[in-house]
Structure formats: C-alpha cells, structure tokens
Amino acid sequence: MGLFNATARTMPQQKLVGQITTFWVIAASGFRRYSTYRQATVAGTFTNTVFGFLRCYLFLAVAGGAVAGGYTPGQLVTYVWVAQGLLAVVLLWGTPELADRIRTGEVTADLLRPVHPVTSMLAADLGRAWHAVLTRCVPPVLAGLIFFHPYLPARWHTVPLFALSVLFAIVITFCCRFLVNAIAYWLLDVRGPLMLWTLGAGVLSGLLFPLRFLPDAVLLPLWLLTPMPSLFQAPLDVLVERDATPVQFGIVGLQACWLVVMLLLCRLVQRRAERHLVIQGG
Amino acid sequence: MTVIEARALSKAFTVSVKKGRFRRERRQTAAVDGVDLRIDRGETVGYIGPNGAGKSTTLKMMTGVLMPSGGEVTVCGLVPVKQRIRLALRIGVVFGQRSQLWWDLPLRESFALLRHIYRVPTADHAARLLRCRAMLELDEFLDTPVRQLSLGQRMRGELTAALLHGPEVLFLDEPTIGLDVVSKQAVRAFLTELGAAGDTTVMLTTHDLADIERLCRRLVIIDHGRVVHDGTLEALHARYNSRRRVVVDLDEPPPAPLTLTGATLDATELDGRRLTFGLTTGTAADVVVQVARSAAVRDISVLEPDIEDVIAKLYKNT
Ligand SMILES: Nc1ncnc2c1ncn2[C@@H]1O[C@H](COP(=O)(O)OP(=O)(O)OP(=O)(O)O)[C@@H](O)[C@H]1O
Ligand SMILES: [Mg+2]
How far apart are CA B142 and CA B145, in angstroms? Predict the structure, then answer.
C-alpha cells in the first residue's frame, strides 16, 4: 500500500492560488451547509418580513411625514426594509457555535487542519452570508418595494459602494462574533458576554434605529472608537444617500480600517488562545 | 529516522477545587509527567495505559492542539503548537470520541473538501479514496450526511479522512471505540496493511488489547503520566513471568498429587478432574506425557500468555 506513503505531496501549484482555492472551497461548503436547513430559512425570512411591517409603520408614525434624523420618510422606508433584509446576512445574532465548540473541545477539529482557524471560519461565514443574500434578503426588500414608497438610490456609484460596504460589514460582524465567542477560551461560559453583545449590537449598530437619531456627542465616538456603526449604519447610510458623495466614500473607508483592525485582532486573540488553550474532554 | 521525539514531556493542568463555601484552591494535576519517547519512521506503537493515565493528553500535545507545560516534543522535526499548521499537512489524526468531519455534509463532500484543504493532487486523492472505500466499505453511506451516520460508520469515515492526504504520522486515539466485530476487523486489516507498507508511523491508543496484539510490535505503557514499559509484548510477558498454560481434563482425579518437571500446577478444578499447569522449562507435550502416566487424559488445551492478565498486573503494580 505504497499509496498512503508518507510524502505528503501537495499540489505543485503556486501557494497563493492554492490558498484562494482552499478559501473558495470552504466558503462553498458554508453555503451548502446552510442550504440543507430549508425550513429554518423559510421561517426566518417570514419572521423578518413580518417584523419589517411593524418597524416600518412605527418609524413612519414617529417621523410623522417629516424629515427625522436627516432621513425623508422614503429614506426611512428603505432603511428599515433593507435592514430587515440584511439581518440574516450581516449576522449579529448567530448561534454561539464557536463557543460551544470550545466548551466541548470540538474545536480540536479546526486546529488539526492546515488552515488558519480564523481564515477557515471566515470563509465558511462568507458562504453562509452568500446563502442568506440569495434567500433571506429578497422577500423583505420586495415587501418594502410593493407595500411602501421607498427611496431608490440616484447616484450611479451608490449600489456598488453599498455592495462593498455590506461585504465589509459581514466581515466585521464575523470578527465581532468571533471575539465574543473566543472569550470561551478563557471563561468557558460565555452567556454573560453574549447577552451584552446581543443587546449592544442591536442598538449600537444602527439595526434597531438609525444612529443619526442620537446626539453628535454620542455618535462621533461611536463611529471612531467602535466598529459597531460599521455593521448596519454604514451600508444603510450609503444606500439611502443620507450624505454627500465624499461622506459616502468616507464611511466605507472607515469600515475598511475597522475591517483590518478587527481581522488582526482576531488572529492575535486566536494565537493567545492557542498558547493557553485547554482542550476539554478525553 | 526519528519521527516523534519527546523529552521530559509534561503537562500539568490547573484545576480549582472548592474549599469551603467561598474559598477555591488552585491545584496542579500532572496529567503527563516527564515522558521520554523516540519513535522511528514506520513504527506502529501501541500507547496504552489505564483511564486517566495521560494518553489523550500526550496525543494532544503531539498534534499541536495542547501546549506542553514542560519538556520538549517534536514531530516530523516540527514543534507541534508553534508550527501547527505546517505539521497538520503531514499528520493524520483520529480522536475517536469526536468528529472531524463536517456534521451537515455527506461524507463524499467532506472528502472532496479535504482534498482542497490539504491540497492533495487529484490523482493521489482519488486512488487513496478508492482504496479506503474498498477496505472500509464506505460505499453504502458515502452520500449520507455525517450527522446521520452510526458511530461505526462515522469512525470508518474519520479514518479515511485522516489518511487521504497521505500523512507521515497517524495518531489514533481509540479508533476502534464502539465498533462491531466486523468493522473492527476491517479497521485492523487496514492498519495492518498500512503498517506493512512500512513508511507510515502510527501511534495508537486503545483499550482493546486485541488491537494491540494484532497491530503493534512496540508497546509503550503509561500510568499516572509516566512511562512504565517500553518494549515488545514478549518483553512484557518475560518481565512479569507470564507463561503458556496447559489445561488437562481427566476422566478421574489422579490417585496422588502430581508433581511434574518443567511445569507447575496452578489450579485444580472440577473435583480434581481439570488441572491447569504453567509451563516453566518444559513443553506442552512434556506435561501431557507426564500426566498420562498416572491418569487417563480426556482432553487438553494450551493457552497462550494472556495480554489482559499481564497488563492488569502492570496497572496494579504501578
Ligand atoms: N481539561 C482538563 N482539565 C483538567 N484535568 C484534565 C483535563 N483533561 C485531562 N485532565 C486530567 O489529566 C489526566 C489524563 O487525562 P487523559 O485524558 O490524558 O487520560 P487518558 O489516558 O486518555 O484516559 P482514557 O483512557 O480514559 O481516555 C486525567 O487525570 C484527567 O483528569
Ligand atoms: Mg483518552
């Protein structure tokens, strides 16, 4: 059985090409994994759409037909419905899967593969997000288009910039969730931090209401010192063209900075964790 | 060529113990306590010991998922935790109690994914998979999601997954746990063939001593984190003086107590009609001849030294 002989030959292709292929294949596996949960997808989409109606009527009632926080009623409609559509894409409230894997020791499997755990988890999460874009995004956005009068972007660069902004938001959200879950490396029980994140993320990211409703004194430090507004506020503000073109680009630039910071932080945390990691269970 | 080398390898876990209502005391437990080990390329080593001896802990340190708290270890010349990702390409691991497959994906897809993750040339991958499918009879459940597989089916999948990239070293922590007789035989036959090919190093932990008898020429036994035996099974038998035994059934009990040369009487059962002799210098034939002189022999059987007995002796002694 010289077949299994131990030379561990890898493909004779370039390293970068190999890494990109690997990343792509893991992302595809993330996509397929979620496509096996059909009922959950249908139920989730339905819920998001129903809540969209509630939130949309609420905002319109509060705004009372006038400009609120710098948004016209049409812009608010777009804001709410696209936020509902993005809810499953820019996943703030996923299951604490990594924390569970750490607690049970199943994280071993991730560590035994020749790919950096943060990289492979990110790839799988992008696959998940793409699945959500195709399935869970469309119904709420359609509902908004059919039953309300949303604001439609007028500048040619808005839509591509929005797409980029959403991609950044997905990655930054992944990092945030990773970091919260990674606390399990030290505490094992992450229910406390998770609760804090669940509450904080909804409010501070701009998902529940546009952060522009808050006073500037709160807003500015929030944008600059935390990644939170980069998660929902940023892509939605870009899409509804709340600000002038340079500001739109500035917002995405700021997201890019947070993306780099957060990815580096994740890798750092992972490295520290591995040095001290205790795999649970025999 | 040395593939695995451990020098004074240790791991102490800190556990906090409740003391009184609020006080907690942090205490160190030595799970692995100064293990020295050299394993050469192509060896199949049985790494055994009682529950809690530190076997899994050692394997975790060797595979790079657990930081040693003392000593050194290298595998394929790499330092496991520090160079874990490079090491991962060159080793295969099965931890029997947990899955490394993708829970929601069918085995077939898991294997395809692994090809990309380990960047295995397509032809090599296909050939190895074909071999595993035949030897481990995977075809029946290749398209079933992993979460729907039975334990034994999953284990065969895990073993395949650990081998598809042609690892230099295979770490198996209880790979036959929960397998039925047929599956066990399939896994053993497979590992025997792998061992016979001669260049894959296998380190195997198991409580099934038949695995050890079939597969491992070398036996490393640890207890309380220390190596208590390192050598062949025969050496272990010699050390504990285990002997072959001859059981003789007689029509009637012998008229007078028997004393034989070259064997000792170890047990008398069935009112003296079944005698068990332990061989010291004589052969089984010597015993039969001597017994037949004084009583009518109805049946005989020869028992090889029992691995369970000798290992139980060792565990008790340490
Ligand atoms: N995460 C942990 N925290 C504290 N102590 C641990 C931990 N993991 C293992 N131990 C202790 O280390 C010792 C060795 O455990 P290990 O799992 O290596 O045993 P083992 O030889 O694999 O046993 P078994 O045959 O039961 O699988 C045990 O006493 C166990 O209690
Ligand atoms: Mg164990």
Answer: 8
User: Average per-residue pLDDT in chain B?
Assistant: 87
B236 found inside a domain:
no
Same domain, B174 and B38: yes
At A159 the three-state DSSP class reads helix
Partners of A4 on chain B (C-beta within 8 Å) are 128, 131, 163, 166-167, 194, 197, 200
A20 in a domain, yes or no? no
| B206 and B260 co-located in one domain | no
Per-residue confidence (pLDDT) for residue B73, from 0 to 100: 94
First to last CA, chain B: 32
Q: Which among A8, A11, A29 has the least Cβ separation from residue B102?
A: A29
Ligand 1, atom 10, lies closest to the CA of B31
The pLDDT, as a whole number, for residue A1 is 47
User: Does the beta carbon of A273 lie under 8 angstroms from any beta carbon of chain B?
Assistant: no
Domain end marker among B189, B207, B231: B231
Shortest Cα–Cα distance, B315 to chain A (Å): 19
Least Cα separation, residue A63 to chain B (angstroms): 46
pTM of the model: 0.85
A9 shares contact with chain B (CB less than 8 Å):
yes
- The sign of the torsion formed by the CA atoms of B115, B121, B122, B128 equals negative
User: Would B65 be classed as within a structural domain?
Assistant: yes
Q: Is the pLDDT of residue B62 over 90?
A: yes
Residue at which a domain ends, from B231, B257, B290: B231
pLDDT of residue A7: 52
**Residues contacting residue A220 through CB under 8 Å, at least 6 positions apart:** none
Give residue-wise pLDDT tens across range B210-252: 888 888 889 999 988 899 889 888 887 777 777 788 888 888 8
Strands B263-269 and B218-223, bridge-based pairing: unpaired
Q: What is the pLDDT of residue B267?
A: 82
- Residue A1 inside a domain? The answer is no
Q: What percent of chain B has pLDDT over 90?
A: 26
How many CB contacts within 8 angstroms connect chain A with chain B?
A: 129
Same domain, B134 and B40: yes
- Identify whether A281 is part of a domain: no
pLDDT of residue A41: 85
ipTM computed for the complex:
0.80
Parent domain of B97: 2-231
Tokens of B191: 């590992």
Is the confidence at residue A110, as pLDDT, over 60?
Answer: yes
A98 is a domain residue: yes
Q: For chain B, how many structural domains are there in total?
A: 2
d(CA A263, CA A268) in angstroms, rounded, equals 9
Triad B148, B113, B144: Cα angle to 5°: 20
Distances in whole angstroms, Cα of residue A48 to Cα of each of A42, A95, A208: 10, 17, 13
Q: How many residues does chain A have?
A: 282
Encoded tokens for A226: 């935390």
Q: What's the CA gap between A110 and B199, in Å, rounded?
A: 27
Domain count, chain A: 1
Interchain CB contact of A217 with B (< 8 Å)? no
CATH of residue B274's domain is: 3.30.70
Domain that holds residue A100: 25-276
Instruction: Say yes or no to pLDDT of A59 above 90.
Output: no
Positive or negative torsion for Cα B225, B230, B232, B235? negative
> CA-CA distance, B282 to B83, in Å (whole number)?
55
Q: pLDDT at position B280, please?
A: 82
